[in-house]
Amino acid sequence: MTDRPILHVVSMSGGKDSTTTALLAIEMHGRENCRFVFADTGNEHEITYEYALEYLPRALDITVDVVRADFSAEFEVKRRNLARIAAGEPESAVYGRRKFKYAWTQEAATRALELLHPTGNPYLDLCMLKGGFPSRKRQFCTQYLKTEPLTEYALERIDEGHAVWSWQGVRIDESESRRTRLQGTGACVKGFEVVGGGLFINRPILRWHVADVFEAHAHAGIKPNPLYLQDMTRVGCMPCINCSKDELSAVARRFPEHIERIAEWERLVSSVCRAESPVSFFHLGTKGHRGQSSTIWSVVDWAKTTRGGRQYNLLADATEPTACSSSYGLCE
Predict the structure, then answer these.
(1) Is the whole-model pTM more than 0.85?
(2) Domain coordinates in residue numbering, the chain
(3) Higher pLDDT, residue 119 or 295
(4) CA spacing 20 to 30 A to 108: which of 32, 84, 94, 258?
């Protein structure tokens, strides 16, 4: 396959699937032939940081490298363009043939220039540059915050003279949408792929079920991420744009500080984007957020309702915030 020494690079997120993937890599190839890397999006819960960067390195006797997207160059370009608009140049002169549904004005460009500076938080910086948040149909967060930094890490190892197996904890059974989208299409359903240039992709748990994943944790004596004991079904972001209604309600009940953080992000992104641009963390459309600098708390209120939002769930806040609760039966 290759005459280069093979290095097994495992993407770690602090979640159940990537942890199981790391266990398999260690068992099959040994720690000395593996590298472990965590892509810090800037939208992670502190429990996930502690689990991925402190607990797992101790429990597995490994080192976890951290990669973070850097958008400093993109900020410089956008600030130059906005400065020209703020100075009175029409947007058409700045962007040429590119057409925008929501045009920049001098006033909006001037306001944005005051606040449009890198914060050092990859997720927030990306949303400030995009003028909005990711959505289910435009999940650019995964590409820019995880895929590209992790790919760059793998390419650096190739430049050092290795062939790289990129181990990815992807499971078709993770969600109904993934099963519908991927199964039988031939897209991203191969357990092993040859990318070229010394890069290979390995998906060892592609067709595992969730019970198999937690069984692997137990067999290795590894505790799962504590967030799985606190109503969370996904731990990659806090919250994730794809989280369920029940999960969002649980995040607000258990970790209200993270909802308020998103509210602050909404207010900041609202101040650096074009007028009428959709800035809600959970997209409400251009009319849904109009006149509001933040909408996350209203979405949380909706998440506590039943019957399509017509009836308030009186039991939504009945569970103690510290009570153990797991969708995977881990509290039993």
Answers:
(1) yes
(2) 72-117
(3) 119
(4) 258
